[in-house]
């Protein structure tokens, strides 16, 4: 039935100003098939709902254990113990917790429900030349739901953007393109060995798809997350410029230095510490990149 | 680029001592009050003013074009003690009843104690600035003298005294301005000397003369007579002919005009002291000896001149640019937005707001219908303006502020409990039904005690409609009770004010013509602003009752009543559930619809008051809390939104603190559902992180964001673009952030000069 298909959503960000033109709503679909070392939202990688627990906020009151109907949460020696296999993700413990220590990560939405949220900001999209951006994770992993969403939005003239890493069979990419007004293409590195080290996947398929996409008539903005010492070399930049130089629909390249991605403060301490080992590229990196890309006729956004 | 003098003046202002004060005012005033004690009141007023203006030090700062400053010293202990003791002499033996007859309304005991009872005024109004510059002080004096000589009022000695006092006052101002002319001449500053000599009596003919004359009147009224919190009316309109003439006749370049405007704006900051009047606990405020020390002066620009005719002109652009470049807390520029406003100008306004300059926006499209509904005539409505903090006025046609902070959460508590309060209130207020709106409430305009409502004919509500009817009934009961007492108060005050004068009576329309001060009815309009407070708390509580009791039927009304009565003792589970229900500010229709319910209930009652009133005053509804939202929660029991007893209520038009988590578009959508076409003022503080709106692209997005809010019927916007990290850093290293200027409610403050409590409130509301 139209609009009843379900998707699993990690987050919805309204007044998003960094994911394409104008004022946008960015919808983060859960599930990813690339595993970037610097990822801020490790919970977005798994394509399923999960229960997130923040031990820093927990006051060990035991309400969660009382509320749990499935025996998945217990108090042992005054501490919360959780059995993943028994949990049905019913959310009862989340509503019982007054300390905001628990959260169900990932929410099921029907296409209609999600559309009803997106459409609320229609006036803002129109006034600013904005629209909706589907991001992730990798939104193409929920391809059917995505198509449903894109069609609903296009039907009322909302500008649509797709944020993808393209690490997926070409026909799945091609199938959504008729309803996509802009692709935000994530390029995480040109050197294939380093790409594998940094993301756990090869960039071969990504590059093949990128070249095909470049000639499909859809405008493209390339986004390059840059982390010091992982992918901030001049060689990477040169290779990227060479790679994209001829693309007819390339609107420009956005460099995203690591720090501006914003570390999620709710991460567990260990995860937060792990994040800290990543650093932003040197301050003149953007200038170098601008020079280099401009020389190849590519705009830096 | 700012003129060199202004750069220097700003720098010096930040460096000046917290203790510097205009001490000679107090000394001269005391001498004069004693000297003229036997004169009739209004005459005495004029003599005292004249005595001070004949003697106060003339200060001309090097490099300035626009002169007019006061001499500040740091008083020694003995001087300070003497000055402190004066307030005991003046006020200690004055009963509340007597205070009420004399002054009727004031902020707080701290505010009143610096004021000699003779020179009393509450400010918060707009003079007829246009008449001041177009006609001159001499004309004003002659007009008043002419009325005395005409014999029209010969049989009413009070009126003759009033006019005689007025003539004295006008002449006194001429005296001071002439003294500036003399001093400037002695110092070889012939240009300034000539300007002062001319405007001492004559009308202004150039932009320079106009600004200089306005400034002298401000200096005298504000720093000497204590009449602060000015509205300057529509400055871009009434100065335009002067500017255009100067340009046409080659007297001035546009850049020079800009320099004069910047200097004038800066003067408003220059006369402030450090500190923030809403942080009464801070030492700077407690020890201050001034009559006015941090008053925001409002300048109104842009807006419609009449239906479909925009007022945006060259000066509007220039004034926005001035605010942007100055970045000061004072003056406070109000831009009136309207459909079809010049897009370039609108973008400049948003850019200026983005830089945290003191600029706020009001919507003509909602304000005009609201003012028409609440008693303003068609011929006056396009001229509306504001004074601090965000209260509407019709400039020059009405006197000072009178208000009541209407706690919109009280009727909820009363409706839930059959008309009786839960009586958890703190404080020294008498918990006695007859104490509702007792004298202290009325004097300070706050509902700060425990209130009881209408207990008659209570029936347990069977539907949400019943419950809402109960809410309206209690709200109506409270406000009609207030009105009845207030009308008696004003009759007493009017009686007392016969033959008396306040500085503002010199420059309002109707006072001199009728030889009647505004309090006794000289002006066309008199109003009491009814500041609806705690909107989001009331809305969330009603929505929670609807959801929990009537929709989900999860809890009975009685269960909730018991839990709220006991502040959720043993019912933390219920509190957590109530807290988890959707809240105002997230664009959720089932909740937001109660914003319409509450606002309409409020406006309906206010409209009814206007029908029933017999006195001079009309009532105007706004949605505003100023910073008193903490105090207003103190006597309230727990509420159905999960708020605990005694906790603060929601601030201004904002969602409850931390309750909006769906983004700023959701916030603006929720707020714009309020029927603002019936609301006449009040602020909405919007916080944005600098990174979301940086660059040209970011400006375009911000402009679009605000345009949509206005088009959807939002009323007001004020913006803080600051990250939490910056505020925390400012707390640690205040010296590095001394000019970080933030909008608080109806005024701006330098963050590091705010009290600790106010700083924390702001930090808590700031996004990461
Ligand atoms: S309910 Fe929340 S705070 Fe209490 S033990 Fe469970 S997780 Fe911790
Ligand atoms: S989500 Fe449900 S099943 Fe899982 S731990 Fe919480 S209460 Fe138990």
Automatic annotation (TrEMBL), chain B:
Record PTM Glycine radical, positions in chain: 746
Domain called PFL: residue spans: 4-644
Pfam families: Gly_radical, PFL-like
Gene3D superfamilies registered for this protein in UniProt: 3.20.70.20
GO CC term, one of those recorded: cytosol
Keyword annotations: Lyase, Organic radical, Pyruvate
GO molecular function, one term: lyase activity
Domain Glycine radical, first and last residues per copy: 651-768
InterPro entries attached to this UniProt entry: Gly_radical, GRE, PFL_dom
PANTHER family recorded: DEHYDRATASE YBIW-RELATED, FORMATE ACETYLTRANSFERASE 3-RELATED
Protein name: Pyruvate formate lyase family protein
Biological source species: Candidatus Thalassospirochaeta sargassi
